[in-house]
Design a protein that fits this description.
globular, mainly alpha, binds protoporphyrin IX containing FE, 3 helical TM bundles of succinate and fumarate reductases
Amino acid sequence: MALATRTDRRPSMTRTLWDSSVGKKTVMAVSGLIMLLYLVVHMIGNLKIFFGPEEINHYARWLRTMGEPVLHHEWGLWIVRVVLVVAVVAHATSAYQLSRRDIKARPSKYVHKKPRASYATRTMRWGGIILGLFIVWHLLDLTTGTVHPDGYQHLHPYQNIIDTFSTWYGNVIYLVAMLALGLHVRHGFWSAAQSLGVGSRTRDRLLKTTAHVLALVLTVGFVSVPVAVMTGVVS
Ligand code: HEM
């Protein structure tokens, strides 16, 4: 009797969905779109540097007070941080598991000669790894100041950003990451739309154009900051 009860136990709906490739692709799409939304807002916020130190430093202070007085000081920012961490972990875990599945499923006639993944798949994998490493560096640079070139000043992003882009390696790290970001968003947005079933013969053109425009706007918007510091427009 006890055995019958045990074998009768079915996995939950959530478990079944998570175990399926469709479920993992949906998780990737939703978490990717959450991060994309954050990036658009972050990029617009960064452009405040062009209006002078007071504008962007004020923005950094607002990040800590948003939601007040309903929320306690910094709670709004912490909610955003928790959502972002959950999105990053969900995105990376499902990407890793899908890629393991893909490698196992590929037919291998010869032990040493497995067919290579497509160009888009390889670009997405490497882009994802570069962006993951970049986020760690970026937080240590402009949020905690641990690897910051000159004395890091809390709540003074204007000066901190100028310090970062006054070093050659700061510029190289950010420019490479922004390029990876553009390529990742261009393909990722399109893939997310397909995973969520939004694509259709009539809509695909519009989706592709949106993916290109989003990737271009984000890349140009983010890159404009180091370029402005390098050229002396922001100093
Ligand atoms: C030129 C490009 C970028 C610049 C100049 C920049 C600038 C900054 C600055 C100044 C902060 C600290 C804000 C503060 O604490 O007051 C910050 C935080 C952050 N940035 Fe960026 N950022 C750039 C690109 C990116 C990209 C591409 C990503 C993601 C892939 C990203 C993700 C983050 C995250 C997650 C935080 C932490 C927010 C928090 O929880 O405090 N940034 N960025």
